[in-house]
Write a structure and sequence with these properties.
Radius of gyration: 21 Å
Structural class: alpha+beta
Order of helices and strands: HHEEHEHHEEHEHHEH
Strand content: 15-25%
Distance between the termini: 29 Å
Number of domains: 2
Largest sheet: 5 strands, antiparallel
Helix content: 40-55%
Bound molecules: zinc ion
Number of helices: 9
Length: 309
């Protein structure tokens, strides 16, 4: 069973370190570690449920995540810096998801700033959804959405009006109906004539998405201009995106992107429902790109030599 750190060894002389952001906000390593331990416990229970050693391996990996951290003191500033650590990189690990989201947010800030400098685009924010699906259909639905997204950005009108995209996959869960809601959040720099003759109305975005996905119903598609003052900066966009995503009332979020992280599972215990959630999300998301860049954003990502998050 994975250690959940409800003890301290009173024989040891120690100092509890605090990690603070530039603005003085405390970084909650302990909280993340505890959530990771809980995910590990779910993987362990899944091994018992399925008999598959695959889950035991994941349980061990997540359990070892950030098990020890080595900090070194900077000679000049006197501040401690993370020098050595092991992170499991398991998709559903809350510790790793948190670190990934910080990295993506900082990358996106640089990319947006550079895009503004080079192209002075306007920005729109698009949300592409499909109907909720059962756990068993989640994996295939996400595969279809990836393909649908690729098609969407090949349509002439989309190509003509846009300069690129940043795409993030998010999955929320409807706990009452026990269904999953995969959707894309897309940040799009658009050409200056987009709001003129290249404008794509919400109804058009909807029909493009419906066609790309070959759906027999009309999907829900949101589109909005990223507001802000004359010079849209990275911060304004991030705030806007955050607001939009919070409005979606995500119950369950993974990956991410500049948004507060929420629990993948509910409560603090291993439950049958949580086991289902971990099982389906693990199957649907392992070895899958949760985020992607296209067009100028992809080029800038490359130019800036940013590593994969
Ligand atoms: Zn991890």
């Amino acid at each position: 069973m994975c250690n959940t750190y409800n003890f301290v060894d009173s024989n040891l002389d120690y100092t509890i370190l605090e990690d603070k952001t530039a603005t003085g906000k405390k970084r909650d390593w302990r909280g993340k570690k505890m959530k990771s331990s809980l995910i590990s416990a779910h993987y362990e229970a899944l091994e018992k449920r399925t008999g598959s050693p695959y889950f035991l391996k994941k349980a061990e990996k997540v359990c070892d995540c950030a098990e020890y951290l080595v900090f070194k003191r900077d000679r000049k500033t006197g501040k401690l810096k993370l020098a050595q650590a092991y992170f499991c990189k398991v998709r559903l690990c809350p510790m790793c998801a948190w670190r990934r989201s910080l990295k993506i947010a900082s990358h996106n800030k640089l990319i947006v700033e550079e895009a503004n400098r080079q192209y002075k685009p306007a920005w729109i924010f698009l949300t592409l959804t499909v109907k909720n699906v059962e756990g068993d259909d989640l994996k295939q639905t996400i595969t279809d959405m990836m393909e649908g997204f690729r098609k969407l950005f090949q349509y002439k009108k989309v190509k003509t009006g846009t300069l690129g995209f940043f795409r993030a996959l998010e999955i929320t869960k409807n706990h009452e109906e026990n269904t999953y809601h995969p959707h894309f959040h897309v940040l799009i720099p658009v050409k200056r004539n987009y709001f003129g003759k290249s404008y794509i109305k919400q109804a058009e975005w909807t029909s493009f998405w419906k066609r790309a996905m070959k759906l027999d119903y009309t999907p829900i598609v949101h589109v909005q201009r990223v507001k802000g003052k004359k010079n849209i900066d990275a911060e304004a966009i991030e705030q806007e995106v955050r607001k939009e995503m919070e409005e979606q009332k995500a119950i369950l979020e993974i990956s991410k992107y500049p948004v507060k992280d929420t629990d993948v599972i509910r409560g603090n215990e291993v439950t049958e429902e949580n086991l289902d959630t971990v099982y389906y999300l693990d199957g649907a998301l392992s070895a899958r790109r949760l985020i992607g860049y296209g067009g100028i954003l992809k080029e800038i990502h490359k130019e800036l030599n940013l590593t994969d998050a």
